């Protein structure tokens, strides 16, 4: 078998429903063999984008390319795409074997080969032996595995996942997620995965595309998005974030970030604009250290008062009132503990400060 | 697997195009271009020959020549979308030219012309799909064009004919004020008033009684409530005028009640004092408002029951329990929580009752007496020697507008006001029973109602076995023998077999079109969808008598002359039963996730394959029950077919009515009871098999 991986390219693709612009002149390249996640709040256009790639919905304008083929005009039937639906969409009147073998029957495969390939793909999703069951005799997770098998059985060029785990209970979700990742990597099929769960996106993807109001907010590998968010929206959407106002001062070697009473020297690896003036910082809750007031103070600290404390098992979450606003922190339960109304200091290491380079786009 | 990038979306194989071309050319050569004098059932070879296109008129040869010239283009690919435009424009223009030609020359289309139009419509669909209509889906494009065509020819065109007939006088001259002259003429105001009063009171009564039955069926703790669940079958299987007939048997001049009162209080009655002329005279009180009101209330209450009980059953029990926990009594809960919650259902039932009462034709016909309503007045404007088509059309317009406006209120205003929330969350809790006193009162009421209904049906059954109701109650088989034992050529058999065969043809046709309409309305968006939407509203709202008048006006002349044929009766039955298919299809399709169809499309299956392998198996029980109920409706309908049935094509209902008119009540009720019994057996069989099919899990699709 030749290398199944192809590149998917969207060129200036728009989609509107009546007057509503669901997608606005989007340009994306999905690298061959990768799994890319479309992440965003509901209504951001991620499912629309997926449906445009599948061919189930026609694009209003722009072009969609699979490798060297322009597939914009092709209907879903001819696009060579496999898709796993949020609702599984297994045919209730067919057995597992009939469901998985459906596409093979449509393309007129000999019965023996249908049986062999159904067996093969069911084995991959650990559902071999369930051939004669009907979908309503399977658990949600089992149904989802069959749906994955059905999407892969025709060895499509593109695999699409539309929130495949949102109907599965949280304990099973992790193992299903890992299985999907493993199958995708083994097959090498270029895949697009839609979710609104940022933890799922971080765990499963080669690349993440954050979408907002029908446009792309930021695209990059999970680590880049987490550590170098380009907008406050991304900072808030991936992981949790305290976004605070700060000011860049000084010039040349002598540049500093000032927020509240804290003054931090700018280090070389910060993604810094040469700008001076107001910026926004993202402070992840887990990088904020809390120290008792009595400890040796540093100019990089903020003073604060514990407003609320919540015990979460391995970690304790504090809300702290400071001069730059209320900060949310998460510290290991083995660290020194504080109670409400304790006066404390919040310590931030310079390398943990994320400067958000762009001010938030104006959104309608 | 290679993507076939070369093929345009919507492109079909050249052979498909060629076969439609060939079909059209062959139809031109061999099938009658114009309608045969005596129809397709009775013709000579000579008539056939004369009706062929080239014999009839030389200019028509343009058509086959044009199609032959186009044949190579089935194989020649023109660049871009030009091929699509070619087929769409040429066949669209040809269809238009055919209709114009037949209309101008006043010729009626024959089978050949019909086949040619069908082939051209298929080519139009192929072309339109290639241009991009329905995203290049030829099958769906064809289905949409088919449905639009059917709705245009059999709904819009006849309705338009009604309006046209009101606007022109007998010589065909334009007369804009004819409508106002007719509706202001003597008597029309009273007829409209009568119709409205009847519709309003029947609406009120059926709603009240429907509510009683619904409360009882859903909330009572007695055993009779199970009986209610079967009682809604009765009006479905009973021809609409039969309840009226049974009322005559009981309450009529020669009915049991009059007889009994005469026996007790008449001139020689048991209780009449010696020498007195009698305290009682036979009375015809049942003829007129009271009789129609009773008959309609009895036969329409089950409809209102179904609407209200559906809504009552879907109330979340927790709301009523919440009320009870706040110290409200059962009465208080019923009045302040339950009834307000089902208010939309009650309003809906009221409007449905009004529409059905205004549209009812059978009961006013047999019970009307002096009390004339629109539906019968329309009939009497045409029936007999009157033939006042303009008057029938004008009254038809009024009835249609009345029905449409009520339907519009129902759809726009009440349709959106439902408090019933379907969350998918299992609702726990028990339904709150009725207050004890209320339940006792309702039990008495319902038992009386059932006894009355039982008495009515029993009198129908018995009436077929007595010599002369009211005069001679000797048991006899003569009515049934007259109907059923004189060979298949006389008695009831011809009309019964007509009914049966027409209904058997109409049922699949109406189900096919109905489910197709439901599919298009729930699944497809396109320009012109509004046409189908509005056509559907008309199908739902148009009263049978209006359909009857409209069809007579539309299909009695060129270009589509169908009156007197079986075809028009089958189509009428299909249109009358179509709401069943549309409603069933809509509710079934709304429960099937579109993801299933999308999953099938992504497995390389085309839309035809998807419908066949995924939708049809899932719609199976809907299709079967829709066919069954369409069949029953077709067998029992009377209002529209009475205008269109002729001596050669009379059906069971029109035959019975003709015997009622000639005074053969015994024969009529004998036939009626056999018809009811047949339908009952049929319904029970269908329900039995449907019930079994649902538990049968081993559905094989391959």
Molecular structure report:
- The complex is a heterodimer of chains A (364) and B (702).
- In chain A, 23% of the residues lie in helices and 34% in strands.
- Chain A has 8 helices and 20 strands.
- Chain A has a 6-stranded mixed sheet with strand order 6-7-8-3-9-10, with helices on both faces.
- In chain A, a hairpin with a 6-residue loop joins β11 (242-249) and β12 (256-259).
- In chain A, α2 (96-106) packs across α3 (111-124).
- The longest helix of chain A has 18 residues, at 170-187.
- By secondary structure, chain B is mostly helical.
- Chain B has 3 domains: 1-136, no CATH class; 183-252 and 287-463, MetI-like fold, CATH 1.10.3720.10; 476-531 and 555-702, MetI-like (MetI-like fold).
- In chain B, 69% of the residues lie in helices and 1% in strands.
- Chain B has helices spanning 14-30, 45-51, 53-56, 62-70, 82-105, 111-131, 138-167, 178-183, 188-219, 225-231, 233-237, 242-251, 256-265, 289-313, 317-325, 330-341, 343-359, 362-367, 374-382, 389-414, 436-463, 478-484, 493-523, 529-541, 544-555, 566-590, 594-602, 607-636, 641-644, 652-661, 665-695; strands at 466-468, 472-475.
- Chain B has a two-stranded antiparallel sheet.
- In chain B, α1 (14-30) packs antiparallel against α6 (111-131), α9 crosses α17 and α21 (436-463) packs across α31 (665-695).
- Residues 1-7, 421-426 and 695-702 of chain B have low confidence and may be disordered.
- The interface between A and B is medium-sized, with 38 and 31 residues.
Ordered list of secondary-structure elements with their pairings:
The complex is a heterodimer of chains A (364) and B (702).
Chain A: E1 8-17, E2 20-30, E3 35-39, H1 46-54, E4 61-66, E5 69-70, E6 81-84, H2 96-106, H3 111-124, H4 140-152, E7 158-162, H5 170-187, E8 190-195, H6 198-204, E9 207-212, E10 215-220, H7 222-227, H8 232-237, E11 242-249, E12 256-259, E13 262-265, E14 277-283, E15 289-292, E16 301-311, E17 315-322, E18 325-332, E19 343-347, E20 354-356
Parallel strand pairs in A: 3-8, 3-9, 6-7, 7-8
Antiparallel strand pairs in A: 1-2, 1-4, 4-5, 9-10, 11-12, 11-14, 12-13, 14-20, 15-19, 16-17, 16-19, 17-18
Helix pairs in contact in A: 2-3, 2-4, 3-4
Chain B: H1 14-30, H2 45-51, H3 53-56, H4 62-70, H5 82-105, H6 111-131, H7 138-167, H8 178-183, H9 188-219, H10 225-231, H11 233-237, H12 242-251, H13 256-265, H14 289-313, H15 317-325, H16 330-341, H17 343-359, H18 362-367, H19 374-382, H20 389-414, H21 436-463, E1 466-468, E2 472-475, H22 478-484, H23 493-523, H24 529-541, H25 544-555, H26 566-590, H27 594-602, H28 607-636, H29 641-644, H30 652-661, H31 665-695
Helix pairs in contact in B: 1-4, 1-6, 5-6, 6-7, 7-20, 7-24, 7-25, 9-10, 9-14, 9-17, 12-14, 12-21, 14-17, 15-16, 17-20, 19-20, 20-24, 20-25, 21-31, 22-31, 23-26, 23-28, 23-30, 26-28, 27-28, 28-31, 30-31
